[in-house]
Amino acid sequence: MHTRTGRAKASVRFRTAQFRRYAEAKGHSSDSELASLTGLDRTTMFRLMKGEIAPGERIIANVLLAFPDRRFEDFFEVAEGSPATRRRTPKAA
Asked: What's the mean per-residue pLDDT of the chain?
């Protein structure tokens, strides 16, 4: 996937395991607690943690505000391709 300039498309991916480690260190583990900590809706937090949605600017900002001692790279990574092309395919039964 390349744009007209020849660069591959990129998107931001949430580092779920890293986020969970930092949140648990602060005493938060449930999706409800994580939602409260970040100021996000519980459904949004659940879907983010499951990888069903990609982080947009509001999610990124809220996560970084909840962890002022951390950097963008602690929770997010830039990945080549759109989020839809990186989704896991269902396992065969």
From this structure: 85
At how many degrees (to 10) do helices 42-49 and 31-38 cross? 110
Q: What's the pTM? A: 0.76
Domain chopping of the chain, boundaries: 10-71
Q: Could you read off the pLDDT of 18-28 as tens digits, one per residue?
A: 999 999 999 99
CATH code of 10-71, in short, is 1.10.260
Burial letters 2-26, b for 16+ CB under 10 A, else e? eeeeeeeeebbbbeeeebeebbeee
